[in-house]
Write a structure and sequence with these properties.
heterodimer, A: 193 residues, mainly alpha, B: 191 residues, elongated
Chain lengths: 193, 191
């Protein structure tokens, strides 16, 4: 029997002693316990000792109930704040969203204060002219007519419409100068910026 | 109590531990039901059958368990972890106390175990004395193996010793005890 087997068998020796009687042991088992007990007397002594030791467990009294109660008092007390905190966070987030929504809505409304002409930068004069047409029933001069009239018209353009020539839109490239002489009509035209 | 017991009685030990940290009383009750008496029994026998001391140690053990539930390593057996803590507590207590003086005092206070068969009674007292006289480590080994019925791998983890060392120590411990109890060889096996 080598050293490893010897060490391994040492464990089994105490199990054999606890679980079997001497007359139940085979040759191999007797060889295993030989180091501890090589005869029935020694075997029985060890068996008695182990029986007494395991029996001592039943001689232990019951632990007092107060021990459990005292341990329970040491358990951490967890306050149910976490769920309230979550609700507070949600409420705060909703409030922030509402405020942000109001803020952005107000910002958009401010655009409505801008004059009609300023808002519609692309066709400021056209819109203005349509408005004039609608309001005063003055006919719009189309591009073809304007070009014809330009030839006929006086070289000095109306100062009010000077800026119109700078616009990129062709359909209001110029206005009949004769219109400009009528000051009441000029007043109807809103300022183009 | 019956209702809470039914909730956690199928939980594994490892599943109950995290619940202790969050103040789970029912989870603690279940864990205590499994190990309270067992650990008290171990302390009672290790600490010279001093009931009050054993109860104090049981209380301290479970408070340590509650406060250090985070330190529990997953995969480790809760039972062996408890015995490890208990073993260390007893080791410290043995260092504090003067073992022989305490042992002497306890001997006088020990109640009679068997009044019917005086020989058996003497034998039991002799076994008890032999185990009590053992140094702390041998005593712990003897109790863990032959009273708590723990396996060699479990004892190895509790005592932080290799399994081969545990096997070897068990063997030589039995041999030593046999020599001390030689006078009782002639006793009949069953009282």
């Amino acid at each position: 029997m080598n050293h490893y087997q010897f060490i391994h068998n040492m464990l089994q020796a105490d199990e054999i002693i606890q679980q079997k009687e001497w007359h139940q042991l085979d040759a191999l088992e007797k060889a295993v316990i030989a180091e501890l007990a090589d005869n029935e007397t020694e075997f029985n002594l060890l068996k008695k000792m182990l029986m007494v030791s395991s029996g001592e467990v039943s001689e232990v009294p019951q632990v007092a109930v107060s021990v459990q109660e005292q341990i329970r008092s040491a358990l951490p007390v967890v306050k149910k704040i976490s769920s309230h905190r979550n609700w507070y966070a949600v409420a705060a987030a909703i409030l922030v969203m509402i405020i942000a929504t109001i803020f952005f809505l107000k910002k958009e409304n401010k655009n409505e204060d801008i004059p009609f002409v300023k808002k519609n930068i692309k066709n400021p004069v056209t819109d203005s002219m349509i408005k004039i047409t609608q309001d005063t029933s003055i006919l719009l001069v189309k591009k073809e007519k304007i070009t014809e009239q330009k030839k006929k018209s006086s070289p000095s353009p109306a100062p009010v419409f000077h800026s119109l020539k700078d616009t990129s839109q062709d359909n209001y490239a110029g206005i009949d100068a004769t219109v400009s002489s009528n000051m009441s009509l000029i007043d109807l035209i809103t300022e183009v910026e | 109590m019956g209702i809470t017991g039914s909730i956690y009685q199928h939980y594994k030990d490892e599943e109950l531990l995290p619940l202790l940290k969050s103040g789970g009383h029912a989870a603690f009750d279940e864990l205590y039901k499994r190990y309270g008496q067992k650990m008290f029994s171990y302390f009672f026998r290790m600490l010279w059958k001093n009931k009050e001391l054993a109860e104090d140690f049981t209380q301290d053990l479970f408070v340590k368990l509650i406060n250090n539930a985070d330190a529990y390593l997953e995969g480790r057996n809760v039972s062996t972890w408890l015995y490890s803590i208990a073993n260390n507590m007893c080791k410290n207590e043995y260092r504090k106390q003067e073992v022989r003086k305490v042992h002497g005092m306890q001997q006088k206070a020990e109640p009679s175990t068997d009044a019917v068969n005086p020989d058996m009674k003497r034998f039991k007292e002799a076994v008890h004395q032999c185990t009590n006289e053992l140094p702390e480590e041998k005593k712990a080994l003897y109790m863990l193996r032959f009273q708590e019925n723990l396996s060699v791998p479990d004892i190895s983890k509790i005592m932080n010793l290799p399994e081969g060392t545990i096997k070897s120590r068990i063997f030589y411990l039995l041999k030593e005890m046999k020599e001390k109890l030689k006078e009782f060889e002639s006793l009949p096996i069953y009282p």
